[in-house]
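haha ok so turns out i had the wrong file open the whole time. this is the CORRECT one, sorry everyone. sequence first:
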Amino acid sequence: MKAKTGYVRAVMEPNNAEYIRNAIADSKGRAVLPNIALLVAEVADAAIAGDNVYITIGITRSRDAILLTLNQSGDKSYAGGETLAQLEDAVLELL
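then structure:
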């Protein structure tokens, strides 16, 4: 199916929880998705310290990617990917 922009629209599969379960099993207790976990920890610490910061996670309006939005005092930064593994890589730009 072609999207309005001319590229082939990705079909997202609802298998991220399965990906995490497999990653946890394969990691033998090591950190899974450490970049996302670090971002969550940094945002939580900043918010606790009084900064106006939060994150939201959802999907794009076109439903072709997972989108993480970092809100810092009204400024927004974004990271996205078709899977949590791709989002994990994209979050590096926000750290």
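Helices lie at 16-27, 34-48, 84-90.
again sry for the mixup
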